Every structure is written in structure tokens, then in C-alpha cells.
Automatic annotation (TrEMBL):
<feature type="region of interest" description="Disordered">
    <location>
        <begin position="327"/>
        <end position="364"/>
    </location>
</feature>
<dbReference type="InterPro" id="IPR026360">
    <property type="entry name" value="Xnuc_lig_assoc"/>
</dbReference>
<keyword id="KW-0436">Ligase</keyword>
<keyword id="KW-0269">Exonuclease</keyword>
<keyword id="KW-0540">Nuclease</keyword>
<dbReference type="InterPro" id="IPR036866">
    <property type="entry name" value="RibonucZ/Hydroxyglut_hydro"/>
</dbReference>
<protein>
    <submittedName>
        <fullName>Ligase-associated DNA damage response exonuclease</fullName>
        <ecNumber>3.1.-.-</ecNumber>
    </submittedName>
</protein>
<keyword id="KW-0378">Hydrolase</keyword>
<dbReference type="GO" id="GO:0016874">
    <property type="term" value="F:ligase activity"/>
</dbReference>
<dbReference type="GO" id="GO:0004527">
    <property type="term" value="F:exonuclease activity"/>
</dbReference>
<dbReference type="InterPro" id="IPR050698">
    <property type="entry name" value="MBL"/>
</dbReference>
């Protein structure tokens, strides 16, 4: 009889039967190892959680009082004879890949990751393994990121232009990861940074965790519109089109997302400017990351799994598509719908389940 694999895909999530734990399960379980605090990876209702130390305060803020143990990168935890350790995924602050080892067999679960060093998340580290379970949100050749410094130059120039034109500047990015990455790269000589409450709460959680961030001011009903107009407003996707955002009119509204790399994406979000900025690996990043693991087989959990696994098989990898409920926080609170016909650069449809990120439902 064939040996049971160390990790398997179940209707609750990725499961290790030997170690009796799940990785990023989407249904309640006894023992959950969590890659990072985005809502499609960190669900409520588990009895025990294990995550990276820098995810601690955000998890507590988002999930309430949970039974949480945190570890540093590289620290090993034994679970029923199986060793579990976390390695940097470079996706957002505190994000981790999960390495699972038993009797010399090694699996790594990527969670979400990017390979560019964003200056605030511990940079991605490839981990050698036999089997690699990888996301592929942007697993299409059209997705190629520029170095972030170029994108931030565009953003800072746009902000200066808005100041010159006397309009407010509203920049949208999801609240965990993108917002802090933007904050740390804004040119603060331009003015002050004002935040929506969801972003400010996330920043405060990270500060409690010892993360150093540039100063921000929470927007409240008392905030002076004239003062706010002289700065920049950081807002989550859930605020787009709401009365909260409209009260800053006239404004220019920019949207930061990897999806801005395709035509039509900016218009669909009614944004004035689209900035290509993603916390996921681009096409080359995915391939280099998978290659660097030296893995025998790769399992693709979310994104363009069909296209990407076909390509990997063509270039000699043993690649498989698996079905999971991981979504796409780039579309946070705006669940991804397939773009209208003809708007993608080719006809391949996005495969990822359309759950989106559930932040809006849980903690707003
Ligand atoms: Zn994520
Ligand atoms: Zn995700």
C-alpha cells in the first residue's frame, strides 16, 4: 500500500494526520497553524492557534480572545512527533511559510508570499523541501512587477500634483500589509498621513507588537477637512464609494493592487489612478521561488492554478492543482468577479474561488 503523504488536502484545510494539526483551515479545528492574519487564512473558531510572533496582536485584534501560541522564525515546535517551523514569506508583517518534517520527509506550505523585499516584512526565504504547497495568485506571464521604488515615486509625484491642484489625495490599499508598506514609503515632506479607522487599528496592533511605523493621524468626525486635504488619506477598499470617502471631495483617488497591471482594472474600481503594487509574487517571482525549494512536486492552492500548473509541468516540474478556499486580499471587501469579456489580456479566466477577503464581514 502506498504511504500516506505527510500533508493532505481535506474539506477543512491542509491536514497533517501524523501531527494532528491543520494549516490555515477554513473550518473549526482543534489545532491550527496559521501562515498570516489575512481573513482567508486566519479563521475564527479553532481551539489552538500557532503563528509567528509578529502576527500576535493583529490576530487578537481580528479574532478576539483566542488560544494563541507564537514563535520566532526558525523555531521548532513538535506536534505528535512531527516538527513544525516557520520561515519568512515576505508577504506582510508576521507572514510565514510553514515547514513540516517527519522522518526526513519535508513539506513547505507557502501561505501567501512575495520575493521582493518591501522593507517592512521579513524578506522571503526559500526553504528546501520535497513537496511545496504554493499560492499562485498572479501566476500569469502578464504579471511582472516593477521594483517598488518606482511605484512609490509615481505615488509621491501624484500626491504632490494633487496638493498643487488643491484636491485631496485618497490612496486605497488593504489594511494589513499594503497600508503599512505604503505608509513607510510615502514622502512625508509632502504632508501628514491620515488614516481610516480600520487601518489605524491595524497600525496600533502592530505598534503593540513592537513594529515601528511612521506617524499617522486617525480621521475622526472632528478632523478638519482643510487639514486632511493638505495630507494624504490612507483608506481600505471597503471605504471606496462610501459617504466617508465622499466627504473629502474634491479628491483624486488612487488604488494600489497587483490587479492594476491589467487593462480595465482601474476603471472597474472607479479609481483615478491605479498603482501596481502587490504583496504576492509575480510570474518570475513564483517560478524562482518554486525552483529555489528544489522540490519534487508542487501543489498550487489559489490563483491561476490551472494555467500555472500546466506551465510548470511543461518546464519539467511535477505540478498539481488543489482546491482550497483561500481567496485574494488584494480584492479585500470587494469579492473578485471575473472581469468582463475581453478585458483580460487573454481569455484565461481566473481560477481562484471568489470568496475575497472577509475582513469587511468580521471586524469593521
Ligand atoms: Zn494574504
Ligand atoms: Zn491569501
Amino acid at each position: 500500500m502506498a504511504k500516506k503523504p505527510l500533508l493532505e488536502f481535506t474539506d477543512r484545510g491542509i491536514y497533517c494526520a501524523k501531527g494532528k494539526f491543520y494549516i490555515d483551515p477554513w473550518k473549526p479545528v482543534d489545532d491550527a497553524v496559521i501562515t498570516h492574519a489575512h481573513a482567508d487564512h486566519a479563521y475564527m473558531g479553532h481551539k489552538h492557534y500557532l503563528a509567528h510572533h509578529l502576527s500576535r496582536e493583529v490576530l487578537l485584534y481580528r479574532l478576539g480572545e483566542i488560544n494563541l501560541r507564537t514563535v520566532e522564525y526558525g523555531e521548532t515546535v513538535m506536534k505528535n512527533g512531527v516538527s513544525v517551523s516557520l520561515y519568512p514569506a515576505g508577504h506582510v508583517i508576521g507572514s510565514a511559510q510553514i515547514r513540516v518534517e517527519h522522518k526526513g520527509e519535508v513539506w513547505v506550505v507557502s501561505g501567501d508570499y512575495k520575493v521582493e523585499n518591501d522593507g517592512i516584512s521579513t524578506p522571503f526565504e526559500p526553504v528546501k523541501c520535497h513537496h511545496f504547497i504554493s499560492e499562485c495568485t498572479f501566476g500569469m506571464p502578464v504579471y511582472q512587477w516593477k521594483p517598488q521604488v518606482q511605484t512609490f515615486n509615481e505615488i509621491n509625484n501624484w500626491w504632490r500634483g494633487n496638493l498643487h491642484n488643491g484636491v485631496a489625495t485618497v490612496l486605497v490599499g488593504y489594511s494589513l500589509g499594503k497600508a503599512q508598506r505604503i505608509l513607510q514609503n510615502l514622502d512625508l515632506f509632502n504632508g501628514k498621513v491620515y488614516t481610516h479607522g480600520v487601518i489605524e487599528n491595524t497600525n496600533e496592533a502592530l505598534l503593540r507588537n513592537g513594529v515601528l511605523l511612521n506617524p499617522t493621524a486617525r480621521i475622526t468626525p472632528e478632523s478638519s477637512k482643510e487639514e486632511v486635504r493638505k495630507g494624504i488619506i490612507l483608506a481600505p477598499p471597503s471605504s471606496v464609494g462610501t459617504p466617508w470617502m465622499r466627504k473629502f471631495q474634491p479628491y483624486s483617488f488612487g488604488y494600489c493592487s497587483g490587479w492594476m497591471a491589467i487593462r480595465g482594472a482601474k476603471r472597474r474600481r472607479a479609481a483615478d489612478r491605479g498603482f501596481v503594487l502587490s504583496d504576492h509574487a509575480d510570474w518570475d517571482g513564483l517560478i524562482s521561488a518554486i525552483d529555489a525549494t528544489g522540490c519534487e512536486s508542487v501543489y498550487l492552492t489559489h490563483g491561476y492554478t490551472a494555467t500555472f500548473s500546466r506551465y510548470l509541468n511543461e518546464i519539467g516540474f511535477d505540478a498539481h492543482e488543489v482546491h482550497t478556499l483561500y481567496g485574494d486580499e488584494e480584492e479585500e471587501e470587494a469579492p473578485s468577479q471575473p472581469p468582463p469579456e475581453g478585458e483580460e489580456l487573454n481569455s484565461l479566466k481566473k481560477v481562484s474561488p471568489s470568496g475575497g477577503d472577509l475582513e469587511g464581514a468580521g471586524v469593521l
